[in-house]
Amino acid sequence: MALFLLTLLLLLLLPNAFAFFPAHQKSHHPHHSDAAHDYRDALTKSLLFFEGQRSGRLPPTQRIKWRRDSGLSDGSAAGVDLVGGYYDAGDNVKFGFPMAFTTTMLSWSVIEFGGLMKGELPHAKEAVRWATDYLLKATAHPDAIYVQVGDANKDHSCWERPEDMDTPRTVVKVDSSNPGTEVAAETAAALAAASLVFRRSDPSYSKLLLKTATRVFEFANKYRGSYSNGLKRWVCPFYCSYSGYQDELLWGAAWLHKATKNPTYLDYIQVNGQTLGADETDNTFGWDNKHVGARILLSKAFLVQNVKSLHDYKGHADNFICSLIPGTPFSTTQYTPGGLLFKMSDSNMQYVTSTSFLLLTYAKYLTYSSKVVTCAGVTITPKKLRSIAKRQVDYLLGDNPNKMSYMVGYGTRYPQRIHHRGSSLPSVSAHPARIPCRTGFTALNSGTPNPNLLVGAVVGGPDARDRFPDQRTDYEQSEPATYINAPLVGSLAYLAHSFGQL
After folding, report:
1. In angstroms, what CA-CA distances link 7 with 3, 16, 17, 405?
2. Record keywords: S-adenosyl-L-methionine included (predicted)?
3. Which of 135, 242, 301, 375 has the most neighbouring CB atoms within 10 Å?
4. What 8-state DSSP symbol labels residue 143?
5. Which long-range contacts (CB under 8 A, 24 or more apart) does 291-294 make?
6. If the chain, 502 residues long, is cut into consecutive pieces of 10 residues, what is the mean pLDDT of each piece?
């Protein structure tokens, strides 16, 4: 009888025990079953892309094997060493303005989410360092910053591999008589942000970056003027500054304040914030306009570090968030029918990745300080911000009307004809002989898939109606860029961690 009762008791208890067990397991990764994508794989690939964009002498650790050394005499025309750095997109020019912004955003990705990257953290830091080594060369001469290598118009008249480049490697600089506040202040921001990346792992390198950032910001602030004026024939229409240089001064000061904790920068922000456009309603964050990024970054000083004098930046950041939320009274953001944030037809995906990063970062700050966003009486929680960011990243990775990933090499269907010279032409190992300037246009105009996979490259993306033709000649939609990938690195690290993939 006792045995019977014991057996009955076990039978009654066991179902509950088994019912409890899966819930207990699931609580470790509460969203694991909701993961639509392999974010860890996407993170790995998003960092690999930067190796495909390298200029200079490639290291033995180079993983994108179809690339070779290039631009080994860059700077020699001006008697300086400007070997290294990144090609910004699908051509062979080194533009300092977007390269500096890429560096700032890669660094910010590591600062906020590097602790979640595990085995990818060394690759992320290597990607930052490839840029900062170059930026240190570009700022080595006092009161001058070298901001471009290559003549974009002549480069664009050829379609050739970087390894075959024979167009002029013109060196362009800003100095006291020909200022370029935007590019100088962005370079200062990049060096200051990167100094935080290396503070523990390489203190002497970190100090060098910060010392240089301080000097470069002083230069940017002292010699004010838009680089689009003095250097118009070189930088326009490619990377003209349309938003002016006030946003970069605010952004640069914000990063120097974060990196140094020097009250001088806090004073600078408090005195100049309004005149630098801290409360403007422009809500586009990218290589040209940094206002929104500065607001989010400065809101952290208030929310997390309790710097009360920066209280207004919480409000400025909230205004940006309210502009993104569909259905709220202040919503001004356009979305495609398939749900993609849409700012403009040319390289729209850069705004998707940068905005998603800001949403996840601001959600982190709000969570830390137990705060929310209120949009005309509607409460927006950090969880809501994360869900919007995840939706955007998921669209990019394949949850879209075309059922395709916009990251090369991720998923089963992705762009095959990206607007990228090195990817579209046979590699040096497959075709050792030089491919002349004009001969390459046959590849540009061909409908065949690119012979070399630029793994991890995120293209400009679909149009306002979710259409994507996958044509190499369509640079607006089919060209990848470093500043598209840089903020995505941070978002993918967060998502991979939160879904138990890292």
Report:
1. 6, 15, 15, 55
2. no
3. 135
4. T
5. 291/243, 291/247, 291/250, 291/251, 292/320, 292/358, 293/251, 293/354, 293/358, 294/247, 294/250, 294/251, 294/254
6. 41 34 31 71 98 98 98 96 98 98 98 97 98 98 95 96 96 97 98 98 98 98 95 94 95 98 96 87 92 97 94 95 91 96 96 98 98 95 98 98 98 98 97 96 96 98 98 98 98 96 85
Pairing mode, strands 373-375 and 378-380:
antiparallel
Domains and CATH numbers, the chain: 34-275+408-498 (1.50.10.10)
Q: Using an 8 Å Cβ cutoff, are 465 and 351 in contact?
A: no
Q: Letter for the amino acid at 60?
A: P
Catalytic residues: 419, 470, 479
Q: Which amino acid is at 502?
A: L
The single residue listed with the structure tokens 């208030």 is 302
Tokens representing residue 43 in the block: 């993170």
Q: How does 283-307 read in b/e, with b if 16+ C-beta sit within 10 Å?
A: bbbbbbbbbbbbbbbbbbbbbeeeb
Look up residue 486 and give its amino acid. Answer: A
